[in-house]
Design a protein that fits this description.
about 450 residues; two-stranded antiparallel sheet; two-stranded antiparallel ribbon; about 10% strand; globular; 2 domains; alpha+beta
Length: about 450
C-alpha cells in the first residue's frame, strides 16, 4: 500500500511539472536576436525561398539554352570543355583557381541553379540569397594569360563588375568566366603512329600561334618577337584560331580583335553601364517564354520597347543586316584570295571554310593541277572520348590522302594580315549576335580586314 502511495505521489509531481512547463505566466526570457546581421528570416530568406518563387524561376530556366542545351556531354568527356559545359567543372575551377578541372568528369551534371548561385551560403551582407553569386571576383582571361599542362603560368585578372561594392553588380564577372574567347583544348606533343613522327599542335585562339604577339599587340615587340601583318606564316592543319561560340564579352568590351597594327577604338556604348542580366534577365513573358531566368531577351519588355521596336525594322535589325553583309564581303574576299572556300547549303545558307596553307606535318599544299596525286598528312581522328570509360583519349590519328581542295588552295604561306582577317571573320561570325553587343567594334574590325585584303 505504501509503494502504491509513493508511486501516485511521484506521478502527481510529474504532471504538475509538465503543466508548469507550459504555463504562460512564468518569467519571460531575454529578447532573442534576429538572424545573421540582425536580419529576420521572414524578411530575408522567405523573400526568395518560397515555393512560388522557386517554381517560377525553375520554369523560366527550363526554357534557357543552359538547361536545354546538349553540350554537357562534351564536358563529361573533356576536362578542357568541362570548365564551362558542366556544373561540376565550373564549380571546381572557381574553387581551385585553375583554367580547367584536374580530371575528366564522366558523370558531370549540366549547368543548373547551383552552378551560378551559392545555394548553401547565408551571408546576407548587402545582398539577398537569390543574388549570391558563385563567382563575383575579377576574371583570369583565357586569352590574355599563359598556361600549360600544369595550369596557369600567368594570372592577370580583369574586373568586369559595374559597381565594385555590390555583390549583385558583379554578375558580369560570373558571366565572363565562361563567355569569353576559349583557351587551349590540347597541347603540343609528339607521337609516333605507323613509324611516322607526328606533332599535335596547341589548339587555341591566340593569334598568331607560336609567337608572343596577340591581337592589339601587332606593333609591339614582345619577347623579342615582332611580327608585322605583311610577314609570312605557315598555317598548319590542326592549328586552330577558333574563338569558339562564347566570345560575347570580348565583343562587348571591344577587345582581342586583330587590328593590323592600328588600334581600334569605339565610343562609349549605350548599354556600357548595364549588367549582362539587365538584358538577358529582363521582364519575364510567360507567353513567349523569354526574359527572366530563360536568359533569352524579352523583346517586348517595355524597358526595351522604349527605344527598340525589335520585331520590326529596328536599328538592331539593321545593324545585324549590315554586319552580315560585311561578313559575306570579307568571306568572298578570302575566297578570291584562296584563303577559304565557299559553300551553299540546300536551304541557301552560305558558309566559308578557312583552308590551311600546310598539312599536319608542315608540308605546303600545292594548287598546281599536276600535283593532284600528291599525298598529304591529314587527321583521320581527333582526340576522342572512350565509349566505355567516358574519358578523353588524347591521341590524333593521321593518314595520308590526296587533297580534295587543291583548286581552292593558296599555294604559298599566308601573311599574318591574312591570318588576322580570317581570325576576325571567325571572331564576329562565332560571336553569334552579329554585332548586337558592340556594333561599332564589329563593323570596324570587319572593315579593317576588308580594307587590308583589298590593299595588300
Amino acid at each position: 500500500m505504501k509503494k502504491q502511495l509513493v508511486l501516485m505521489v511521484v506521478m502527481a509531481y510529474a504532471i504538475v511539472s509538465l503543466i508548469g512547463c507550459n504555463a504562460k505566466d512564468g518569467l519571460a526570457g531575454p529578447p532573442g536576436t534576429n538572424g545573421h546581421d540582425g536580419m529576420d528570416a521572414n524578411t530575408s530568406c522567405l523573400t526568395c525561398h518560397t515555393d512560388s518563387n522557386w517554381n517560377l524561376k525553375t520554369t523560366q530556366y527550363n526554357y534557357s539554352k543552359h538547361s536545354l542545351g546538349t553540350t554537357a556531354a562534351r564536358g563529361q568527356g573533356n576536362k578542357y570543355c568541362a570548365r564551362c559545359h558542366t556544373n561540376d567543372g565550373f564549380v571546381e575551377i572557381v574553387q581551385n583557381g585553375q583554367p580547367w578541372p584536374a580530371h575528366e568528369i564522366p558523370d558531370a551534371l549540366k549547368i543548373q541553379c547551383q552552378t551560378c548561385h551559392k545555394m548553401t551560403s547565408f551571408d546576407f551582407t548587402g545582398d539577398t540569397v537569390s543574388k549570391i553569386l558563385r563567382q563575383p571576383n575579377p576574371v583570369v582571361l583565357n586569352y590574355l594569360n599563359l598556361f600549360d599542362l600544369n595550369g596557369w603560368k600567368s594570372k592577370n585578372t580583369y574586373d568586369f563588375a559595374q559597381v565594385k561594392d555590390s555583390v549583385s553588380s558583379k554578375v558580369n564577372n560570373l558571366c565572363v568566366t565562361c563567355h569569353q574567347i576559349r583557351g587551349a583544348t590540347s597541347f603540343e606533343y609528339t607521337d609516333t603512329v605507323g613509324g611516322i613522327k607526328t606533332t599535335a599542335y596547341t589548339q587555341m585562339a591566340y593569334f598568331p600561334l607560336g609567337t608572343a604577339i596577340t591581337p592589339g599587340d601587332t606593333a609591339t615587340t614582345a619577347k623579342g618577337n615582332l611580327k608585322k601583318p605583311t610577314d609570312s606564316v605557315a598555317y598548319l592543319l590542326g592549328r586552330s584560331f577558333d574563338v569558339h561560340d562564347g566570345n560575347q564579352s570580348n565583343l562587348r568590351y571591344g577587345i582581342n580583335g586583330y587590328d593590323f597594327g592600328t588600334p581600334i577604338t569605339t565610343a562609349p556604348r549605350h548599354h556600357a553601364k548595364d549588367n549582362c542580366t539587365d538584358c538577358h534577365m529582363n521582364a519575364w513573358d510567360a507567353t513567349t517564354h523569354t526574359g527572366g531566368h530563360s536568359l533569352v531577351v524579352n523583346e517586348d519588355d517595355p524597358a526595351c520597347a522604349a527605344c527598340h521596336t525589335m520585331k520590326l525594322a529596328d536599328t538592331l535589325a539593321l545593324t545585324q543586316a549590315n554586319i552580315k553583309t560585311l561578313l559575306n564581303q570579307l568571306g568572298d574576299l578570302m575566297v578570291t584570295r584562296k584563303m577559304a572556300k565557299k559553300t551553299t547549303s540546300t536551304s541557301g545558307v552560305v558558309s566559308y571554310t578557312i583552308l590551311p596553307s600546310h598539312d599536319f606535318l608542315g608540308k605546303l599544299y600545292s594548287n598546281i593541277p599536276a600535283d593532284s596525286t600528291v599525298l598529304y598528312t591529314n587527321i583521320a581522328a581527333y582526340n576522342r572520348t572512350d565509349s566505355t570509360t567516358g574519358v578523353l583519349k588524347y591521341a590524333n590519328n593521321i593518314t595520308r590522302t590526296k587533297d580534295t581542295d587543291l583548286k581552292n588552295r593558296i599555294g604559298r604561306k599566308w601573311t599574318y594580315g591574312e591570318l588576322g582577317a580570317a581570325y576576325n571573320y571567325g571572331y564576329i561570325n562565332k560571336e553569334l549576335t552579329f554585332g548586337s553587343h558592340n556594333d561599332e567594334y564589329a563593323r570596324k574590325l570587319l572593315q579593317a580586314s576588308i580594307t587590308w585584303l583589298q590593299t595588300h
